[in-house]
């Protein structure tokens, strides 16, 4: 089977358009795999693993009329994609395998799938007490009871997560392109199949976002960006086609620590520090440039961080810029107001 046909098969499986025989055959292999991508293997290790996968796929292939070479392509692709569950094509099948008739090992238990086919949000309570809010046209998949002790879910679409803290078991969200790891926090992951970029936004706590290894024929491992750490009001944006991962502020940072926001002849530096505290945003400025500068401002009526900064800049003749989730306040001195 040519690689293009294999890619088409895996895409059909993810979209739920396989024939019944194709779907059963793929799931027979897929359900037997442990959670999470495999570590990098040597050439000998990949060959040994390919043979093991081929043995697992042999019973399944009887369900299809494909020649043996086709299933060898599938096994090889699974190895090249890092054992599948985090890969770009197998990352989100439309439905989990059917429940077995007899008790099965934890790794082979059927997946629980939560699909939001409504126009509103769908609340999902996870086995560890964490909660996910699925947006429309989104799907969440995980093992019953988080089998194997791993708090791992697989997402297609968009969801907001409120994660129960467990220092011993990090919570992991896999999409087709990235994995997000946390201990306990709240964040949003947006990864619809049709969108060019995957976005992870943090509301509270910290998360680590790592691109997944590309499938066979993609970029080299050296070209894949390293992980980045996100803090509240920050987001990671990953473009797999360009292998680019960057950090930035969310469009509308939320208020984390309310402040009075009323300044009567107060130093500009005090205003900037209050904004940093309120929104948890790194605002950089030159103390020498604002030394001796004071303002009379009431920023309570400005709803957003950027609206407050605009008013401060108008009052002082300053400007600001953004880069890598930081704001730089540019001042050449103060003007009378």
UniProtKB/TrEMBL annotation:
One Pfam family from the record: FecR_C
Coiled coil start-end: none
Protein FecR C-terminal domain residues: 261-328
InterPro entries: FecR (IPR006860), FecR_C (IPR032508), Ferrdict_sens_TM (IPR012373)
All copies of domain FecR protein, residue ranges: 118-208
Designated name of the protein: Ferric-dicitrate binding protein FerR (Iron transport regulator)
Organism: Hymenobacter caeli
């Amino acid at each position: 089977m040519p690689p293009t046909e294999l890619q088409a098969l895996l895409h059909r499986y993810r979209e739920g358009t396989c024939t019944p025989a194709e779907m059963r055959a793929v799931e027979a292999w897929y359900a037997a795999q442990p959670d999470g991508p495999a570590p990098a293997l040597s050439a000998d290790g990949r060959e040994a693993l390919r043979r093991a996968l081929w043995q697992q796929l042999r019973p399944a292939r009887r369900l299809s009329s494909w020649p043996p070479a086709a299933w060898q392509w599938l096994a090889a692709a699974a190895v090249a994609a890092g054992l599948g569950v985090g890969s770009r094509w197998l990352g989100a099948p439309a439905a989990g395998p059917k429940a077995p008739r007899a008790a099965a090992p934890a790794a082979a238990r059927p997946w629980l799938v939560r699909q939001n086919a409504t126009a509103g949000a769908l609340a999902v309570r996870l086995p560890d007490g964490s909660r996910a809010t699925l947006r429309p046209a989104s799907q969440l998949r995980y093992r019953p009871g988080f089998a194997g002790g791993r708090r791992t879910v697989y997402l297609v679409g968009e969801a907001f997560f409120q994660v129960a803290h467990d220092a011993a078991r990090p919570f992991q969200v896999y999409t087709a392109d990235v994995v997000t790891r946390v201990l306990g926090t709240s964040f949003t992951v947006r990864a619809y199949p049709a969108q060019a970029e995957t976005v992870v936004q943090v509301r509270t706590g910290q998360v680590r976002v790592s691109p997944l290894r590309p499938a066979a024929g993609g970029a080299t491992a050296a070209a894949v960006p390293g992980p980045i750490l996100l803090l509240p009001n920050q987001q990671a944006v990953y473009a797999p086609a360009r292998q680019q991962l960057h950090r930035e502020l969310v469009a509308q940072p939320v208020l984390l620590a309310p402040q009075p926001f009323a300044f009567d002849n107060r130093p500009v530096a005090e205003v900037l520090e209050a904004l940093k505290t309120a929104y948890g945003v790194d605002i950089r400025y030159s103390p020498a440039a604002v030394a001796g500068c004071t303002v009379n401002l009431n920023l309570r009526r400005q709803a957003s961080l950027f609206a407050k900064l605009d008013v401060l800049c108008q009052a002082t003749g300053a400007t600001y810029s953004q880069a890598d989730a930081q704001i730089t306040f540019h001042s050449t001195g103060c003007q009378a107001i």
